[in-house]
Write a structure and sequence with these properties.
- With about 220 residues, the protein is mostly helical.
- The chain folds into two domains: about 45 residues, Orthogonal Bundle (Arc Repressor Mutant, subunit A), CATH 1.10.10; about 130 residues, Tetracycline Repressor, domain 2 (Orthogonal Bundle), CATH 1.10.357.10.
- The protein is built from eleven helices and no strands.
- The N and C termini lie far apart (about 90 Å).
């Protein structure tokens, strides 16, 4: 405590090292010895605090899930309506993709590396994906979609496609393109705007003859 701050626990140091290495290089590529060396702890500390590599990977993914939920929740809190909240999620993804440390979705990466059978790791990936899907379905429902489940699932597919395009193709515009497609989906699935804006749009799109007849003074 030379600097007045409590020293990080062995578990925290292991998780910090695992988060850095697993995301950058992959959960199967990185062995426990490298994590232990980066964390600067004894090997016994890993087994006494986490028990196994699988539990270390699960804890790493749980931390990533909490961080993503926090980022998304903070971002959508900026907006007043569910449509803008949905699009805000794609805006946030675009900012993440632009970061030089971006290596794709941690959950897609870990799921692709692991076995197809259910494990602690695959459950962590499934839980995080389910959270995002449920959020988009809930926002679609709030926005008035007639079929919020279908809309939410399609939005997840766009989100996934953007992350894969960015990580595999290096396409920094993938989130912007996914957002544009999301706008088209929302226009298709959500009720048209009502009120002053909707009336102005209807007036603008009305046939010229109809607009002329409305603007002509009434016969006296």
């Amino acid at each position: 405590m030379a600097n007045g701050k409590p020293e990080a626990s062995a578990r925290d140091r292991l998780l910090a090292a695992a988060t850095e290495l697993f995301y950058a290089e992959g959960v199967h590529t990185v062995g426990l010895d490298r994590v232990i060396e980066r964390a600067g702890v004894a090997k016994e500390s890993l087994y006494s605090t986490l028990g196994s590599k699988e539990e270390l990977v699960r804890a790493y993914l749980a931390g990533r899930a909490e961080a993503r939920q926090r980022r998304v929740s903070e971002r959508i809190a900026r907006y007043d309506n569910p449509r803008d909240r949905i699009l805000g999620i794609f805006d946030l993804l675009g900012e993440q993709i632009a970061a030089p440390t971006y290596r794709g979705c941690a959950f897609i990466n870990a799921s692709a590396e692991g076995p197809r059978s259910e494990t602690k790791v695959t459950r962590a990936c499934s839980d995080s994906r389910g959270w995002l899907r449920d959020l988009l379905i809930a926002l679609a429902r709030e926005a008035g979609a007639a079929d919020p489940v279908t809309l939410g699932r399609r939005l997840v597919l766009l989100y996934d496609g953007a992350t894969i395009g960015a990580s595999m193709d290096g396409d920094l515009n993938s989130a912007a393109e996914a957002r544009a497609m999301a706008v088209a989906l929302l226009d298709e699935h959500l009720p048209r705007a009502r009120g002053a804006d909707g009336q102005r749009a209807a007036a603008t799109n009305a046939p010229r003859s109809a607009r002329r007849s409305r603007s002509r003074p009434a016969a006296r």
